[in-house]
Write a structure and sequence with these properties.
Blueprint lengths: L5 E6 L4 H14 L3 E5 L16 H5 L2 E3 L2 H5 L4 E5 L11 E2 L1 H10 L4 E5 L8 H4 L4 E3 L12 H14 L16 H17 L8 H15 L3 H20 L2
Parallel strand pairs: 1-2, 1-6, 2-3, 4-6, 4-7, 5-7
Helix pairs in contact: 1-6, 4-6, 7-8, 7-9
Length: about 240
């Protein structure tokens, strides 16, 4: 997998040393696309642990929402504790993910959560797959910078055996999936299926279903076309 096809996303990081260490790990292993979601405001003024990786930080994208960081990616991989993961989601180790990415040239986002609590359930429900680094049960959590380094090392460790021209994926981007989620909720509102207070949970369930089936671009376009026609018909009857 070419390194420029893999994006590193740090969600709500608070320690400038960890951001710097993540950037340095990216530089070590040849990755350059860093996105940071809602960093703690003072951290950008105090990042000191990124020797020879200042260009990674200078070119980093800072956004307000995870959706903005993953919109053009068709494989979003969250990192987290397996005990917090929905049993319907696939759990990968970094080595497993490396083998998976050798097969298809996905536009991939690796998403890491905040140092204290990791990714929230709302973050994880936006991920196609979940990755967990095997650690000892009595010390499961890792430093953010170390976790990034381990994951990236595994992705490039066997790069010499990767097919030089892996096929392009036929799956849709996260942004297209989110657009389909919003369209689905619009239609469900029109038929009074969205009850007071249940919209957030319903939205997560619709999103989870669309991600689980890993729809092709053709299938997603067909579903969205059907939903748009239903929505137009229902709007016309109001």
């Amino acid at each position: 997998m070419p390194q420029n096809d893999c994006r590193i996303v740090l969600v709500r990081p608070r320690d400038p040393n960890n951001i710097g260490a993540a950037a340095r790990a990216m530089k070590n292993f040849g990755f350059s696309d860093l996105w940071v979601v809602l960093p703690f405001a003072p951290v950008w003024e105090d990042i000191v642990s990124a020797p020879n990786a200042t260009d990674i930080l200078a070119n980093a994208h800072v956004v307000d929402h995870l959706d903005d960081a993953i919109a053009d990616c068709n494989l979003v991989v969250g990192t987290g504790d397996p005990t917090r993961i929905d049993n319907q989601q696939s759990i990968f180790t970094p080595a497993d993910l490396s083998r998976e990415l050798q097969k298809v040239a996905h536009r991939t986002a690796l998403v890491f959560g905040t140092e204290k609590h990791g990714l929230t359930n709302e973050d994880l429900c936006r991920c196609h797959k979940i990755m967990s680094i095997p650690t000892q049960p009595n010390c499961p959590s890792m430093n953010l910078g170390q976790a990034v380094a381990i994951c990236l090392y595994e992705l490039i460790r066997e790069k010499q055996v990767v097919s030089p021209n892996p096929p392009e994926p036929d799956t849709v981007s996260a942004g297209a999936t989110e657009a389909a989620v919003n369209l689905s909720i619009d239609v469900l509102r029109l038929v009074d299926f969205v009850l007071p207070g249940n919209e957030p949970d319903l939205t997560r369930r619709v999103r989870s279903s669309l991600l689980k089936y890993n729809l092709s671009k053709y299938d997603m376009n067909m579903i969205c076309g059907i939903l748009r026609n239903v929505k137009d018909k229902l709007d016309g009857k109001r």
